[in-house]
Amino acid sequence: MKKIVDVSLPIGPVHPVFKEPARIKCETMGERVLSAEVELGYVKKGIEKIMCGRPWQEVMFLAERICGICSVIHNMVFIETVERVSAIEPSPRAAYLRVIVNELDRMQSHILANYSYCYTIEHETLAMYLLNIRETVMDQIELLTGARVTCAYIIPGGVRFDFRPEEVAKLRAALLKIESDVKRFQGMFANGRMISLRSKSVGILTPEEARIAHAVGPTARASGLRIDERLNHPTYKLLDFEPIVRDECDNYARVMIRYQEVMQSIAIIRRCLDELPGGLIRNGGEVGAGSIVWKGEAPRGELTYDLKTDEFGRIIEIAIMTPSIMNIEACGHYMLKGIDSAADITATFISSDPCIACNER
Known about the structure:
Low-confidence stretches: none
Number of strands: 8
Largest sheet: 3 strands, antiparallel
Order of helices and strands: EEEHHHHHEEHHHHHHEEEHHH
């Protein structure tokens, strides 16, 4: 009898195009993928257990070490969770400064994700261009916070440092360069024939499938879902934020939406700089006992902290839900299933921008 499955095709955990270790197990018939499963667990850190029993001052540093690519949002959501437990209100100026640094971090993450995709489909020229412009964004994060990756910039009641006028001028000049270059690279991606062949109508995730899989972030918005936790954030509400949504539902849409969101982040940063309130960068307050759940929008989607503290500000219980686990599930169950070429497996996986470090916390 003829077998239904021709080959069980394992990819990873070590693969040239994977930023972090993961294993994709595909069942194929010829080149067509019949089913796929993403296997995790290669770099488990146990960081939530390490956090328990420690004071918030130590956990603040641990939180941003969950993932180096999206460290600022982990810092931001943890601190905002602590603030809500303790009835601490950040100063208006600090709230805007937080958004600026968070959007810079979103920009470098999105550019890195698109670099990974271009490298995966072997468009190395565009990939290197993107990696180079990401350095400009990282330079701005370092200029404003003092560090490139683990900044510890956001603290209860405010932020550590204010922006000096000369730093703001340098940031505005850098944004002009980033905007110009990203527009050019977005055009190269949108109009490249090879990119179209490798990206359009590949890795389809329909709106209904995205809902079933609880996809979040750009992966969900590229499938027509208007999902973005920034809509619920008090500071972003002041900025009239509106998420970008596309309806192509494929690899092309997931990459293009990140280009568009980089441009949107530049606009948000400029508005924050234009409307930056005066006053202090830090309010007083003391971390106390309580429990709460708080969410934020990481570059990959919804990030949730479920936190319980004692009267001394020590973390009693903490549970963190990161966005990539839902997007990886969506990728394994829907996006990879039915792909007509095994060569598109890695490209489709990378198009969901999986963050293994967050999942392996």
